[in-house]
Amino acid sequence: MQTAIIEAREDRVHEEVIRTSVGLVDAAVRGDRGAFERLVEPYLSVALGAARLITGNESDAGDAVQDALLASWQSLDDLRNPELFAAWFRKIVIRSSTRCVQRRRHLVEMDLESQDPAGAADSVEREFDRRQMARAFARLDPKDRVLLTLHHYWQLPVSESALLLGLPEGTVRSRVHHALKRLRAGFEAEERR
Amino acid sequence: MSQHFEDAVERMLHEVAKVDRSLLEEARGTIAALPNRRRSVARRMPRRVGFALAGAAIVVGVVAVSVLGPLQSRPIGTNSSSPTMATPPASPGASASAVPLPSAIRTGPAYNETLPVLLTGRYVAFAGWSPDSSRYAIASDGTRSPTIHLFDRSGAEVGSVAHEGLFEFAWLDANRFVVIASEASVNSAGPLAYLGRIGSTELTSVGQYDSLVGGRSGSVALARTGNGDPSVSTKHQYVVVAADGSVSKPRDGDPVAWSRDGSMLAVYHATALAPEPSGVEPPTLGSLEIVRPTGERVASTQKPSFANPGALAFSPDGARVAFTYDTAPLRGTPQIAVMEIRTGHVTMLPQSGPLTWASNDELLFAYTSTDYGKTPAGIMSWSAVTGRVTTYGRGDVVAASGLGTVVIGSDTAHDFTWTTTTGGSTRTGTFSLGYTMGFGTWIPDYPWSPDGSSLIITVGDWNNGTPMDAVLFRP
User: Fold this and answer.
1) pLDDT at residue A175, rounded to an integer
2) Inter-chain residue contact B16 with A106, CB threshold 8 Å
């Protein structure tokens, strides 16, 4: 009974979020910057995180997200289903980040010095050193970084990743699998250094 | 892949994704400084009937078109452990559900022509024209596995192939083809290439390969990294499958593109700057080599000096090859290089972008500046005669047949312009993709048929999770 109440409450909250998003999109379409800010605020932090993973550094991540904000603001008319704003914005962020990488076309050199090594004490950290893994991740092809960002950072279902990337679901599964294999191989190479 | 490792990957990603708070504040500041909104010129149009089909988890919704006649679709995809080829139904329309395209979308007074839609589905991608231009292949995502649909010029589906992880296709001739399928299971050895034939349910494995390069002549180059597992080696090898199905011995290099007549293949040779015992690819510089299908070298760049080679296209007469590259493996600037195959002389252009040859002497490319879109994109023209780069038109999509017709447009604009030059006279016109373009739409493929008579344009739309279309243009 308690579970049912909680689920019903969560459903209502979800519906409220959807209703609010639709209202905010309508207001933003009419030029209300405040509404746009409220609309994107819940997604800004993870958008920056994803952009950082894909572009490899904070500077490019900031540029990519600013680009995405400008693009989404200017093209709100094209969002035909306001309740899908989150997915639409995610797509724009991925696109901006990927374009950023394509323009720079360099292998990513992540600034790992700023990463907090505090977690190195736990058992998982001993087995899979985070910094070595981060280095291996930075050296992956940008497409692999996008795939792993979608699946293991944003944790999107395969169906949404497939839509976002314009790929069949089977292909997405296969490519994620191979991206993980490449990451593991790169990680093991880092370990042998 | 163990769950333990995947958990560690997630922890690492969340750690690396942490950004300084100031970056978040900067992003918020961007919102406050946004310019006044401009209204999109894109019209809001009703969703196509075909899209509803796609959303209903049907393999593909097929749209009837007046030019090609109604296309046929059938449920495909056995998801069996070995790929099989499906043959068309004995009686046309036995399992088809042709859907008429709403007339309001099909015609528009502002356009010369609205393109007929070949196929509508949740995912549609162009897969290849047959060398004689009589057939084409379009990939779509099935309910359980990706599917390649094979059509003839009348629009009739003549066959299809479906398999888990199917991701590459190329024609050998109008009846035979090569596909690559990747098993999604954890312990799979890697993708495999198969030979297939229309009318046969058998697909024959030709070995472990992870990519292919199809050409207009029918020869197909199959490539693999090292021993076939791209995660353990940086060395590339390839074989050439001839139109008769024979397979050459493996050669070193990474095949990039065939010349129009199939007599030459461009191959990239990467030199690792920091060799590693195994694992991900190290930074590389590389050289480009032009070889015959037999392996005989025709030309090559003098030394390894190109990083990250991208788009590559031979001029129609095969005298030149243009390609994009980076000036350095780290923090390089993308540029275009044009190599004279006879002399090996390379001309560098300071711009870069998707490229196509309008004629033997004129290269067109869609230039996007590197200032994050602040400078408008445009179609540029480079003349091999004068060596000058001039503005050709507006847009970011350019497709030249190499035989007189050029189509330009944008992946966010509604209309396209075509120009055909024959015998000194020029005709121009516009056409619509029959779909409201805008931000969130994009055009991943726009290949001309080898005979220059038809252009297929695939359209993706991310707004509303709508599917992709393939549309056909005939000048």
Assistant:
1) 83
2) no
* CA-based nearest distance B416→chain A, Å: 19
CATH number of A119-193: 1.10.10.10
Give the C-alpha separation, B267 to B287, whole Å: 8
Report B:312-341 residues touching A (Cβ under 8 A). Answer: 326, 328-334
Range list of β-strands (E), B198-345: 203-208, 211-214, 220-225, 236-241, 251-252, 254-258, 265-272, 284-291, 297-300, 312-314, 320-326, 334-340
Q: Residues spanned by CATH 1.10.1740.10 within chain A?
A: 1-106
pLDDT reading at B98 higher than 60: no
Measure the CA–CA gap between B166 and B186, rounded to whole angstroms: 16
Q: B156 and B165 in contact (C-beta within 8 Å)?
A: no
Mean pLDDT of B386-390: 92
| Interface confidence (ipTM) of the complex | 0.82
A interface mutation test: which of B7, B15, B351 has the most A CBs within 10 A? B15
Nearest-CA neighbor of B467 among B145, B117, B160? Answer: B117
B472: left (phi over 0), alpha (psi -120 to 50) or beta: beta
Give the C-alpha separation, B460 to A148, whole Å: 22
Neighbouring residues of B335: CB distance < 8 A, sequence distance ≥ 6 = B324, B325, B326, B327, B348, B349, B350, B351, B352
In this prediction, residues B75-95 reach a mean pLDDT of 32
DSSP alpha helix (H) spans, chain A: 2-29, 33-55, 58-74, 85-104, 123-127, 130-138, 142-148, 158-165, 169-192
More confident residue, B293 or B122: B293
Q: Within an 8 Å CB–CB cutoff, is residue B16 touching chain A?
A: yes
Phi, psi (rounded to 5 degrees) for A104:
-80, -35
Assigned token pair, B67 = 């030019």
Residues of chain A with CATH 1.10.10.10: 119-193
B64-70, Cβ contacts within 8 angstroms, sequence gap of 24 or more: B64/B98, B64/B99, B64/B100, B64/B101, B65/B101, B65/B116, B65/B117, B65/B118, B65/B155, B66/B116, B67/B116, B67/B472, B67/B474, B68/B116, B68/B118, B68/B154, B68/B155, B68/B472, B69/B154, B69/B155, B69/B156, B70/B96, B70/B98, B70/B155
Distance of residue B138 Cα from the nearest chain A Cα, in angstroms: 13
User: Above 80 in pLDDT, residue B71?
Assistant: no
Higher pLDDT, B408 or B352: B408
Type of residue at B308? N
Task: State both tokens at B379.
Answer: 């179609």
* Residue among A29, A45, A100, A107 with most chain B CBs within 10 A, to mutate: A107
Which carries the bigger pLDDT value, residue A153 or residue A106? A153
Taking the C-alpha atoms of residue B77 and residue B61, their distance in angstroms, rounded to an integer, is 15
Q: Kindly determine whether residue B145 and residue A87, on different chains, have CB atoms separated by under 8 Å.
A: no
List b or e across B237-268, with b for residues whose CB sees 16 or more CB atoms inside 10 angstroms.
Answer: bbbbbbbeeeebeebebbbbbbbbebebbbbb
pTM for the model stands at: 0.60
Asked if the A1-106 domain carries CATH number 3.20.190.10, the reply is no
Summary mean pLDDT of chain B = 71
